[in-house]
Amino acid sequence: IAERTYARILHKFERSCFLDRVRDKVSQTDGLKNLKRELCKSLMKRNIEDWAFDIKGTIKRLLSRKKVLLVLDDVDDNSQLEELCGNQDGFAPGSRVIITARSERLLSRHGVDRTFEVHKLNDQDALQLFSLKAFGRDYPDKHYVALSKCFVIYAN
Known about the structure:
Number of domains: 2
Strand content: 5-15%
Radius of gyration: 18 Å
Number of strands: 3
Shape: elongated
CATH architecture of the largest domain: 3-Layer(aba) Sandwich
Helix content: 40-55%
Oligomer: single chain
CATH superfamily of the largest domain: P-loop containing nucleotide triphosphate hydrolases
Distance between the termini: 18 Å
Order of helices and strands: HEHHHEHEHHH
Number of helices: 8
CATH class of the largest domain: Alpha Beta
């Protein structure tokens, strides 16, 4: 949902960045540092190799000067939000931040004012989504139905 929303409204902003799988990437070596680099590169629209300067300060300045669309996907800790986007006061008028998280409490602690809860898919819709991603069609081949259902159940 976040990816589609991003693609649909991207053209309305001066700068944009989609940081996916934040939770997974932060757990890797230098994960948060690498996410900050990716954010700076996206917002500055150029590849910068010298990272000796203050990344957090640079991000804050960039967010305050341009109308920005920022998507942070799968955030699981308030410190990630603080490091990657600061607070709401630092954004230029018209900017938007979309955050996906499993915890609504995390969002409210960061001062997010509007939330949208995505409900779990029913078994049939989950199987259809899995089939589209895995096989490029609505329903798996008859030889893969049972195995596909096992994957869907496992993924919950």
